[in-house]
# Entry
Amino acid sequence: MTRPPGTRGGARVWSATRVLLLLVFAVFFFLPLLALLDFSTTVPGTEERTGDAWAGLVQDPTLTDAITTSLLLAGLTVVGMVVLLVPTMVWVRLRVPRASRMVEFLCLLPLTIPALVVVVGLRNVYSWVDYFLGDSALTLTFVYVVLVLPYAYRALDTALSAIDTTTIAEAARSLGAGWFTVIVRVVLPNIRGGVLNAAFISVALVLGEFTVASLMNYNTLPVVIVLLSKSDAPLSMAASLGSLLLAAALLLVLSAFDRRRPTRR
# Structure
C-alpha cells in the first residue's frame, strides 16, 4: 500500500509541534520552581549559596506544626469525603435514582458560594463545634469535606457510571450479602480509580486552601507560608517549593495504589 504524498512531512511537522509545545510547557511550569529554588538558596545581597532556609523547614516549630496539621487535614478530609459520598451515591443509584439530581445539586452548591460567605455562615455552627471538640485546626475537616464535594462528586459519578452498579449489587444481594458488604466489598473495589481521583483532588485542595483557614484564624501550611513571607522571605520561598514537592510526592504515592495488575495472555 503506497503512502499518500505529504503524509511523512505532515507527521514530522506534527512531531516537531508536539516537542515545541512540551518545551513551552516545561519552561512555563519549571521556570517559577527554579526561581523559587534560586531565591531560597541565595543569601540576600550576595551571590553566595546557603541551605539555611531549607534547614529552617524542620527547625521552625510553627512550620513543622503547620505541615503536620495540613497533612492530618488532608487525610481526614479524604476519609470524610469517602465515608460521606460513596455510600450516599451508591444508595441513591440503587434505591432512589430520582434523587440523583438533588444530590448532584447539593454537591455542586459549594462552587457557587464564596469562601467568605461560607465562613460567616459557619461562624455560629463552629461555636458549637469548638464547644464539643475544642478549638483545634483539625475541625476544619468539616469545612474541607464540603469544599471538595463538587470535585469528588464528578470523579465518583464518572466511576459509578462506568459499571453496572445495579446488576452487581443485586447479584451480591442474591448471594446473601448485606448492604455494607455490597458497598465496601463489591462496589468500592470496582470504583477504586474514581475514589483515588477524588482523593487526588481533595489532597491538592486541602494543601493549597488559604482563604477559609486564614479567616477562621487557623495556622495551616498556606497560612504560615504567607505569614513567613512578611518576616523571612527565603524561608517562605523554601516552604512554598517544599509544599509543592510534598503535594507531588503524596499524589505519586496515591497513584501507586491505582496500578493495575498486568494481564497474562
In short: The CA atoms of residues 213 and 220 lie 7 Å apart. The chain has a mean pLDDT of 84. The chain is about 75% helix and 0% strand. The two ends are 31 Å apart (CA to CA).
